[in-house]
Design brief:
Blueprint: E1 2-4, H1 8-11, E2 15-16, H2 30-40, H3 42-55, E3 59-66, E4 71-78, E5 85-86, H4 92-104, E6 112-116, H5 127-139, E7 143-147, H6 151-155, E8 163-168, E9 171-176, H7 181-188, H8 193-198
Parallel strand pairs: 1-6, 6-7
Antiparallel strand pairs: 2-4, 3-4, 4-5, 8-9
Helix pairs in contact: 2-3, 3-4
């Protein structure tokens, strides 16, 4: 099982080379895992780059380099510039999406993946594609749990995929969106889950 709550700052600096196949829960070993994919699984790495380029059109390539001091550099090439940028200089959103792709396309996926608020640092327009990436991961055999406070993320989810927690008489119970008749009727009429959440139709989900 993997629990992921990525932080951008620890993933930016160059790291001393240590063999790693999977991202750590906070993502600080991104450079090492990128180097592993870049050299050991170039087909998977190219798939990751193709998806990153689609979502961030300015990015034309990503590669890694091990310095003489034994540190791993992750370099992002922008088509408008001759020299690549190190990871420490790219945007939070670019680095966050790249981290998710590195995690989700690992050669040996986790059987259970738990994600904490993946919407942080990402444009709302990317939520639909991120949900589809998690969905594809589940189709390949991994079970995915995502906690979110993003209506945009929720809008991209199917009725059967959404649960929420509610306190009842001192206990916490799990509610299924697919078992709420009112939510089902609105969804059948073309509404979206994120909008219904904003309007208060997720009973008990807004209690603080």
């Amino acid at each position: 099982m993997q629990i992921a709550d990525f932080y951008i700052s620890p993933a930016r600096p160059e790291q001393e080379f240590v063999y790693a196949e999977h991202l750590s829960p906070s993502g600080e070993n991104l450079a090492m895992v990128t180097e592993f994919l870049y050299n050991r699984h170039p087909d998977i790495f190219q798939k990751i780059i193709a998806k990153l380029k689609h979502r961030f059109p300015g990015i034309s390539n990503v590669d890694t380099k091990i310095t003489e001091e034994g540190r791993v550099l992750v370099r992002f090439k922008d088509g408008d510039f001759q020299d690549p940028f190190l990871a420490r200089y790219v945007s939070d959103g670019t680095l966050k999406m790249f981290s998710y792709l590195v995690l989700l396309y690992a050669p040996k996926p986790h059987s259970v993946l738990c994600m904490e608020e993946p919407e942080n640092q990402l444009y709302p327009q990317l939520m639909g594609e991120l949900v589809e990436e998690f969905r594809d991961y589940a189709r390949r055999g991994g079970q995915v749990f995502v906690s979110t406070h993003s209506p945009d993320f929720l809008n991209a989810c199917e009725l059967e995929e959404v649960f929420w927690l509610k306190k009842e008489r001192g206990y916490t119970v799990i509610k299924r969106a697919s078992e709420d008749e009112q939510i089902k009727i609105y969804m059948q009429a073309g509404d979206q889950l994120g909008y219904l959440w904003r309007q208060g139709f997720f009973d008990g989900a807004d209690l603080r």
